[in-house]
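Submission checklist for the structure archive. All mandatory fields must be present; incomplete records are returned to the submitter.

[x] Identifier: Serine hydrolase domain-containing protein
[x] Organism: Spodoptera littoralis
[x] Residue count: 312
[x] Sequence attached
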Amino acid sequence: MSEEQSNSSCASNLPSASITTEMPSGPVSTSSETPSTSTETPSASTSSQIPLSSSSSQLPSNLTSNLAPETSNPSTSTCAEKEKKIDPMKLKILCIHGHRQNGAKFKVKLAAFRKIVDKYAYLSYVTAPHAVADTTGGGDQDPRTWWYNTEDNNYSGKCLGGPAYGFEETLEVVKTGVRDLGPFDGLMGFSQGGCLVGLLAAMQQKRLLPYRFRFVIIISGYLSGSLVHRGFYEHNLITIPSLHVYGETDSMIPKEMSESLANKFNDPVTFEHPNGHYVPVSGPVKAVYEDFLADMYQQRLIYRQEVERTAE
């Protein structure tokens, strides 16, 4: 059962749940939220300077990156060396999966998306800290959630007025991902992950994060209905550049929910595809991804040039 189909009722107080940070050590991907037919703690804000891309040879098991270290093996062919060489000017994006997914599954599901954005960006992935029961019958391994908002320690995207149990642990997981794999130019989130990305953008607007990013891509995202999150959306519009993609026939997260989140941003780029709850990668949406990231890439180059001129 996916996050939006949960019949669990909302509660103001949830019983304590066992929290584990044991994550699969393999590559990170999407989950049972995506139809099988698809290919697809607060502190002062820090500087927005974006240093060169880097990667770690040893990462925590809940973090995965597409960045490959440069080879030092003299027997490796020149072609292979070029393929593994890191382009320091490419954008770096942290990808945040949905409910009942994990980072490794999200990476697998985003294989086609990675090919579309490869010209402009490297993708990294992080896994949610909270385990949830797999009631889908699909055999997915290690389903995770970013926070609970129901009385049975589960999650529903349509739940209004509930708590956000475990959200502080989630903030720590994202902060660790930024520290170990970042810094990042942008965040990309799907479904509950899109909801989380929207919250992080709102928190950055209020200077409540210890890191910064310059844009967001939100797919099938929505406003959190948890009471403790409402204050993040209040007052000014979120000024960070944003791309919002959602499905016209999405029954899990109706397009009106995604539009409500997009309306919290100043001058958002929106794209409505004709299908349901998944990450679309075919048709006109490909150009939408490419155009948005091309703009973000160009802004990064301009920023880098300004930094270099200032340093002279």
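[x] Structure attached
Curator remark: Residues 1-9, 11-59, 67-83 have pLDDT under 50 and may be disordered. The longest helix spans residues 285-311.
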